[in-house]
Design goal:
Blueprint (H helix, E strand, L loop, with lengths): L25 H9 L13 H24 L3 H22 L4 H25 L3 H21 L7 H27 L11 H31 L6 H24 L6
Length: 261
């Protein structure tokens, strides 16, 4: 009877070729029996809860840093230097898609210091504006989350391309406006208390909400795809970045309509 064992059944035709293997050495036997018979577990996949926890950690670090910057009155100069360092760290995380928590929390610390110094300067000129901006940011975040959770609107690939292009376009306009302000007071008027400035600020706030929609969509898609758990840090970074954008734009927009007496 022909054997069904795949090792014994591997013969040449008419039984002319047989298989033989060299006798294993003592060291080889030790290695064979010393190797575990199970495969090591793979990295845990990311869940939405992971993103929530990392988001609270990242945003909490930013808020605490901002509060300390305000309390110790670090000033605009230190705040500006911290913003530059935070920008560099943010660019590294963004372009390298880094999941390193040190870089991401470092960004949160630096931007927290910058936001604390800037918020203090705004509060000194417009009493109560910071609380209004914080509440406005919370409302914008909650409204955007509700729109996404209730499936009133879900980002499409075409919408995603539009938002990304609009983001680069807005940054380009800000750069041109800054260069123009060197030669003409107010530059293009995009950051002045004028109808052009109001419209641009509203557009920037809407763009921040659009980026939040993309963040929510990316978090849900990644969780369903089973990406590794470490990517929850990158998702938390994206959410924090969008919230910083929203807060700063809302702060500026409110300042246009706040009495500084």
């Amino acid at each position: 009877m022909e054997s069904r064992n795949p090792i014994f059944s591997r013969r040449g035709t008419a039984g002319q070729q047989t298989w033989s293997t060299p006798t294993p050495s003592v060291q080889q036997l030790n290695d064979m029996y010393g190797t575990p018979s199970y495969a090591p577990p793979s990295e845990r996949t990311m869940t939405i809860d992971d993103v929530v926890v990392r988001g609270f950690m990242t945003l909490g670090t930013l808020v605490v840093s901002a509060a300390l910057s305000w309390y110790f009155d670090l000033g605009i100069v230190i705040g500006g230097l911290a913003a530059i360092v935070g920008l560099v760290l943010g660019l590294i995380v963004s372009f390298r898609q880094s999941t390193n928590p040190v870089l991401i929390l470092g960004y949160a610390v630096c931007y927290g210091i910058a936001i604390g110094a800037l918020s203090q300067a705004y509060e000194a000129r417009f009493n109560g504006i910071v609380l209004q901006a914080v509440l406005g940011t919370m409302v914008a975040f909650g409204g955007t989350l509700a729109v996404y959770a209730l499936k009133i609107f879900r980002p499409t690939p075409k919408f995603t391309k539009f938002v990304i292009a609009a983001g680069f376009g807005a940054l380009g306009l800000l750069l041109i406006n800054w260069i123009a302000s060197i030669f003409v007071t107010g530059g293009l008027g995009l950051r002045t208390d004028s109808p052009i400035g109001w419209i641009f600020s509203v557009a920037m706030i809407l763009l921040g909400c659009f980026f939040l929609l993309l963040d929510f969509s990316e978090i849900e898609r990644s969780a369903r795809a089973g990406v590794p758990e470490r990517y929850s840090w990158l998702m938390a970074f994206g959410l924090t970045l969008s919230l910083v954008w929203l807060y700063l734009e809302i702060l500026r927009f409110i300042s246009y309509f706040t009495n500084n007496d």
